[in-house]
Amino acid sequence: MARSLARSELEQLVDSLVLSWDDMASHTKAMLHCTVRHYLDGKIPWKITFEVDRWPDYTAVLWTCDEKDTSVLAFAQDSVFLHWTSEDGLRQLLTSTSVDWTKSLILIAFPLSGLSILREHLENQGLPFPAAEDIHPCDTAYYLHKICPSLEKVDGTDDKVTVAPLQPEHSHLVSSTWRHGGTPESEERTHYHITTFPSACVYDQDGNPVSWILLNYYGSQGLGYTLPDNRGRGYFQLASKYLISTCLQKGYLPFLFIEDYNEPSRIIHRKLGYSWNEAGRCAYIRLNKNKFKSS
């Protein structure tokens, strides 16, 4: 059976996760580092189970919310994360974990390099491999610079705007403009992230939010958006620079996921100094989609 880590062992785990600005395939390590750190700091209020293939010389880690904990927010339910440095360790952990693979699940930013092992595991369990429409591939974009970007206004930016964190009262606006938002669950998710983790927002001269980006509880940046009437003015670049600076000051490795269809995001983040390559390819994968609860 997989080994479930005690809280004292989580301290050892996070100390072993040395983040490298030279590793272009480290997003699962970065997600694990941020999740454990936030969990130990009390920023994730629900219980998370961390399982390893062996201890202390682990080669694979799986973490997911404890399904018995009724305090788990809806957006985090059924999410499964994996980090591995050995394919044999991944195979062993997939087989021995306490996760019920027959349930509706979503694998978060699962590295595409592990797809064949995942397929093999599901076939051995007598379960279907997800259809193409249930696999949403992304590039992992990294900000691989160790200095904070200048927060000077970019060309075309109005000098009267200000940059500061989002406020709780902006949860509805941010949720309603998100591609997957507009539901009570997404607003709950947005409110939780705004009130718990760093964010950045450009405000116009009247104090209205016009462009923003947030930090997810597992460390990636997301939910970036600029209101349509305010696009083309450099506001998103300004908000992103603010959040990058905050992340670097707090010791985070700035990274985010760009869906394959989102070429405008690639253009903007390349200008900001982000880079990506094949090693960081990953996907959000829905398993047993027909069992997902209707919202």
Automatic annotation (TrEMBL):
Cellular component aspect of the GO annotation: mitochondrion
Residue span, GCN5-related N-acetyltransferase Rv2170-like domain: 209-275
Molecular function in Gene Ontology: glycine N-acyltransferase activity
Key words, A-Z: Acyltransferase, Transferase
InterPro entries: Acyl_CoA_acyltransferase, GCN5-like_dom, Glycine_N-acyltransferase
EC number: 2.3.1.-
Alphabetical list of Pfam families matching this protein: FR47 (PF08445)
Family as reported in the entry's similarity comment: Belongs to the glycine N-acyltransferase family.
Alphabetical list of PANTHER family matching this protein: GLYCINE N-ACYLTRANSFERASE-LIKE PROTEIN, L-COA N-ACYLTRANSFERASE-RELATED
Protein name in UniProt: Glycine N-acyltransferase-like protein
Provenance organism: Branchiostoma belcheri
